[in-house]
Amino acid sequence: SELQLQLQFSAECWVSVFDANGKRLAYNMQNTGQTLTLTGIGPLKVTLGDPAAVTASFAGKPIDLSGYKQGQVARLTLTGSE
User: Fold this and answer.
1) Phi and psi torsions of 52, nearest 5°
2) Pick from 80, 30, 37: which is nearest to 51 by CA?
3) What integer pLDDT is reported at residue 82 of this predicted model?
4) What is the C-alpha to C-alpha distance for residues 42 and 35, in angstroms, rounded to an integer?
5) Residue 68, class by beta-carbon neighbours within 10 Å (0-12 exposed, 13-18 middle, 19+ buried)?
6) What are the φ and ψ backbone dihedral angles of 76, each rounded to 5 degrees?
7) Are strands 2-9 and 54-58 parallel, antiparallel or unpaired?
8) For residues 73 and 67, is the Cβ–Cβ distance under 8 A?
9) pLDDT digit string (tens) for 25-82?
10) Rounded-to-integer distance, Cα 79 and Cα 71, Å
C-alpha cells in the first residue's frame, strides 16, 4: 500500500528517496524552508545528506533523526511499522 513521507527542511539538504519498486521519488537538493511530501509503496529507501536539517514524518508518525550528528548522512529504510 502507498505510504506518505513528509520532510521539512531547516537548512539545505540532499535528498534521495526510492520506493519498493525502485521508482525514484526524489533525488535533489532541497532548500531552507521547503517541504517535500512524497507518496510511494513501502518500504522506502531514504538518504538524507544532513538529517539535522530535517523534520520528518512517515505514515503520520514522526521519525526520530536526533541520533545523527551534524554532517552525518542518514540512510533509512522505512516500512511503516516504525
Assistant:
1) -65, -20
2) 30
3) 56
4) 20
5) middle
6) -120, 145
7) antiparallel
8) no
9) 999 999 999 999 999 999 999 999 999 999 999 999 999 999 998 789 999 999 977 5
10) 25
Q: In Å, how far are 5, 27, 28 from 73, measured between CA atoms?
A: 18, 15, 15
pLDDT reported for residue 28: 97
Cα–Cα distance, 60 to 21 (Å, whole number)? 22
Which pLDDT score is estimated for 1?
A: 76
Which triple of cell numbers denotes residue 20? 519498493
Secondary structure string (H, E, C) spanning the chain: CEEEEEEEECCCEEEEEECCCCCEEEEEEECCCCEEEEEEECCEEEEECCHHHEEEEECCEEECCCCCCCCCCEEEEECCCC
